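Notebook entry, structure prediction.
Reason for the run: the old model in the group folder had no record of what sequence produced it. Starting over properly, with the input documented here first.
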Amino acid sequence: MDIQHTPPLTNNTTDINDHKVYTYMRSLVISGIFFLVLYIFSHFSLRRYFSKRIEYDEFERAYLPFVLCSFCFSISLGAMLLMPITIISNEILVSFPNNYYLLWLDRSLVFDLWNWIYWGVNISLFFILPFSYFLYEAVGKSFFARLQEAAKMLSLVSIIFGGFVLIVHLIVSESNESFDYIPFSYTIISTTGSLIVLFCTPRGFTTLMNMGLQLYMPFSSRQSLNDKLKTYEIEEEVTLSKLNEEEESGSQESPSTHSHYTTINVQQEKEELTTRLKVVREEKKRIKGRLSHSPITRNFLSFFFTLINFACSGYVVLRVLFHLITRFIDPSASSKLIDFLNLEAAADLVVVNRVEAFIQTVVVIYMIAAAFMGFYSNKFIYNIRPRKGDTSMESMVFNTAAILLISSSFPIVARILEITSFDLMGNFRHTKYLVHGSYLYLYKFSFMVALAYRFLDLPFSVQIDSSNFRFYIQPKKPGYSPVGSGLSRSSSFDFFDQGKGSLLPFSLSKPSFKSD
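New structure, fully documented this time:
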């Protein structure tokens, strides 16, 4: 392994040992600072989503699980940044080999970072996150009683999972193959994460394109938005007056004049009016936000984001299709990925394809965003997705585990799809299924099929809403709210909602997620 920016070593054993200590301490200090920054960012990010409507006793019970979730989330952020850091570090090391301010950066440091992330992912998934959940759910008056119960549950779950890993190893492995628990268990976890990325990334591509198309605003739409804003203002005044009438009538009449069923009906009507008022104010705020930007700015941003979406997704499609066809023509062809620790090969890569290094960094970040957008746009995840200021501890543990699972599997996915020119490093190379060419071929083929399905369905699903001049993805079944509106579209453009006296041209019922 070639170590840069270090003085030449002599044959003296003392100098060699000093060099090893210096390299280890430098890696430890820089990695510690890196994880400390990620932890601070993770802590304040999760605080924005943690529920603020909990009592002091529950907050005290959730404090340690929250700290552990913040640590796991920082590990997931580090896993997301592995491939971009590798590409950018290689560019810096080759472009500025003798820069005084970059003496701390070398290839062994990036190699150690991969190993730190690998062990952090395994410890977080197998121990920290399950322990956080069991500690929060443990029943006991004292902290040590709950700690003891959580430790017992974690031990039981670890034994069960260890038995499951052993059974899977006996089924899929050969008889003469040695059994390494940590690499094989991570193989199972990364397989699950890679399958989630496989189906969520194409969905995320179309979701990001939808977000770009939603910014489109024709120049003649401001008058329509102003009219709609006035409609919502009238609806807000009517709803407020009805709420005031209900409160005044309830306070003037004595409880004896009301039956049990009448009281329930009055409460239900108040809840419906409160919900209607909340939705109207949200839609009113959204329209004011749209009116605050000129059509020129919105159309430019729409064109810019749509262009980025098509460019990045097109690069991924062409690159995966090229490797798929190459492997189909010549099944014995091996992947020509660059070893980051090989200085000569990495230097040739930068000199020849310096622009491609930038493109690969942008595409990797884009695919990470698409994977999470596709995951959280799924209808099964909608009820447990994090909400600002209203996320329970159980939901936070689940979301942290899902983010960690996807982010830790993304380097494996990048290696399978070959969207970057660098190979995996460290313990990530021990993933078992990477040596099976049939699995790699099947994964690429499935990714292209899922991507083709989403893109072929996109022209038929994109519609223009003529009432507010906005692009949105048209659902396959009725009763589904357009993305971003929170309202269900009525069949006719009527200013009165039949049966409820609404002045809105929409039905204010809760959106149902019945379409895929």
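Summary: Residues 1-10, 463-516 have pLDDT under 50 and may be disordered.
The old model has been moved to the deprecated folder.
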